[in-house]
Request: fold
Amino acid sequence: MLYPFILFLFGLICEYNTMDTLIAQLDQKYSEYRKNLHNEHIDSDEYIFYSAYDYFCITETQPKIKEIVKNDRQDIEKKKQEIIKQNESVDIQNELIRKIESQSLSFCYGEILRDLYIPMTKYKNSSKLLSAKDIIGETELYRKRFLDILYSALKKFVQFFNITDRKDLDMHFALWKIINNFKQKKYSVYMERINNLLIPQLLKLHTQKQEIETTKTALIIDSRKGIYEKSNEKLAYSVGKNSKRFKIIKYLLTKDGCSISELADLVHQTKISHSTMRSILEINRLFRKNTGQSYDLICHNDTIGYFLNTDKFEFQLKE
Reply:
């Protein structure tokens, strides 16, 4: 039964490497962002904006990260309700709520999602010219009125002197507004908090999953009582000692894997191996039903055929 264990171990290593790669990518993008913050190049605002956008292009494709942000948002909502219940003063409520929100992962994440990732993604993915309103959307622009007046004057100047006939002028200026808006100091604070809060949670989530997956359930295969969890003998899958199903289970204890024809030979069903396949399906169904387990007793893959589920269970034969 060494081969299934090797497959299980390989899966854990691959998942660990995937998580390790994700964290390394986030660290790299955040380092690039920090570097661009101190870059005095003439286009530094764009560098800052696009490096932060690259960071969010990674996080927004990761279900685990979205789950972390969602859980944090729910936790903050509960805390806000507690604050409202415990304080009658609206001013105190608002101050305390503002404090916990501004320090939270979900708030910082939501602010940058709204003001950077969503408008830039609209701009990048659109197959047609977008209006300034389409791109800016819900973004909270700093000095919005001043920028609108500036653009209105610039547009009239361009039209009067017929400098260009570009129809995408509105769209490009809207993007410039988004980029210029992002140079506010609050966004660098948000980015720092996001990275500092997110990485430890990713590591914690991964560690917890590893601990769960590496803990196996001890199963007793008893020729008299059937199959049951070592800690709960009452919930047993009763299977006869001389039955074909028990022979299959006991045989697989000695094998890393075997074909359906080999098992059919074992129980003298050579010409109707599909009956043996149905027997395995029934073994798994009754095993889950009678023992309360969530996983199948017998697994299958195209490489090694049928084998006992040593990923989830440790087996002990009791004659």
